[in-house]
Task: inverse folding
């Protein structure tokens, strides 16, 4: 169990489609810290067509990892802001040893430390099923997410919330998902041992309903 005290600095590790975003929201709703998602940061940058967005867009479309120096600069700059002084939950970072080491160096320099690294356990086949069936609303102010198998919209291809069109994101196509998983196994899995050796890793079963998985995750976090 992780005793976070008054300040919580956590990483939510795990492959794409393991439910990190959903469960991260449950954590921040329970403990008042910022949810920092690199995926959300990058998708916003792409939508705005700013300098970062133009650099990361080709990598996202191919299902490849954004280069370490670029993603690390974006994240470190974000957690160095004043609103992160009371803690944060990193979702989607680090994904490589280079990123983990750079994060560790930054936190040490800032006299801060991680409280824990949370890892949902989900099989590759389950992840492919989850992501390839996901459909997202095209309305920027809605972006409601459905699943053709587990949570379908009432009308095929139409958002229940706002009536706009649903699409399958480029990075949710089966071929892209499998490529993302291959990269995850090559690049990110070494982080599991890296954080286990530092007594920071906490694993939990990522299969089940959102409520069931959320209860397992929150049971790992002790707040005072």
Result:
């Amino acid at each position: 169990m992780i005793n976070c005290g008054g300040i919580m600095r956590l990483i939510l590790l795990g492959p794409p489609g393991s439910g990190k975003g959903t469960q991260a929201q449950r954590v921040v709703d329970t403990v008042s810290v910022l949810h920092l998602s690199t995926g959300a940061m990058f998708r916003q940058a792409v939508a705005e067509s700013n300098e970062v967005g133009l650099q990361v867009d080709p990598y996202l479309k191919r299902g490849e990892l954004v280069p370490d120096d670029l993603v690390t600069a974006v994240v470190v700059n974000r957690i160095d802001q004043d609103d992160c002084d009371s803690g944060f939950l990193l979702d989607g970072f680090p994904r490589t040893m280079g990123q983990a080491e750079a994060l560790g160096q930054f936190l040490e320099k800032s006299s801060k430390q991680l409280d824990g690294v949370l890892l949902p356990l989900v099989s590759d086949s389950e992840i492919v099923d989850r992501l390839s069936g996901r459909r997202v609303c095209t309305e920027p102010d809605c972006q409601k997410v459905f699943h053709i198998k587990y949570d379908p919209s009432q009308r095929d291809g139409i958002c229940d919330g706002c009536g706009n069109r649903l699409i399958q994101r480029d990075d949710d196509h089966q071929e892209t998902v499998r490529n993302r998983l291959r990269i995850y196994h090559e690049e990110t899995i070494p982080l599991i041992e890296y954080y286990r050796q530092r007594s920071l890793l906490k694993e939990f079963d990522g299969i089940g309903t959102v409520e069931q998985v959320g209860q397992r995750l929150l049971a790992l976090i002790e707040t005072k």
The mean pLDDT is 88.
